């Protein structure tokens, strides 16, 4: 598991550290539909990141030849980053599910932010990145 520089990594140096030290990434809300952001980003991360990916979607059984888990709690390994592709109204439950597995960081994609949930996660020692695309940041900082 990685230790993070702070609970709200935003600088290029902090994001580089987060992305370069992560090993296991869970993608919550992955879609098997081409053209969906979660699909494109999962394919990119599978090809270029070196991360061990875990996919979460109760409506799928497999994705990219891997098992898809119904929930975060089913993942057998520790998770560094929970990358979230869910609507804002689903975030409270996603955060609660994430707390049960104690990730180092919860990553909310472009257009998704919730200051209250981020503060609650920070109080539990979980870092949060909001309103950023992990593909864009990975490609920009690490490739």
- Range of helix content: 25-40%
- CATH superfamily, by name, is NAD(P)-binding Rossmann-like Domain
Shape: globular
Q: Using DSSP, what is the number of strands?
A: 7
The level-1 CATH class: Alpha Beta
Sequence of secondary-structure elements = HEHEEEEHEHEH
In a nutshell, what does this entry contain?
The protein has 143 residues and is an alpha/beta fold.
SSE inventory with pairings:
Elements: H1 12-21, E1 24-28, H2 37-48, E2 52-56, E3 62-63, E4 66-69, E5 81-84, H3 91-101, E6 105-108, H4 115-123, E7 127-129, H5 134-142
Parallel strand pairs: 1-2, 1-5, 2-4, 5-6, 6-7
Antiparallel strand pairs: 3-4
List descriptors:
single chain; 143 residues; alpha/beta; Rossmann fold
Account of the 3D structure:
The chain is an alpha/beta fold and 143 residues long. It has a single domain, classed as NAD(P)-binding Rossmann-like Domain (Rossmann fold, 3-Layer(aba) Sandwich). The chain is built from five helices and seven strands; from the N terminus they run αβαββββαβαβα. A seven-stranded mixed beta sheet has the order 3-4-2-1-5-6-7, sandwiched between helices. β5 (81-84), α3 (91-101) and β6 (105-108) form a beta-alpha-beta unit. α1 (12-21) packs across α5. The chain is globular, with a radius of gyration of 14 Å. The chain starts with 11 loop residues before the first helix and ends with a helix. The relative contact order is 0.21. The model has no long low-confidence stretch (mean pLDDT 95).
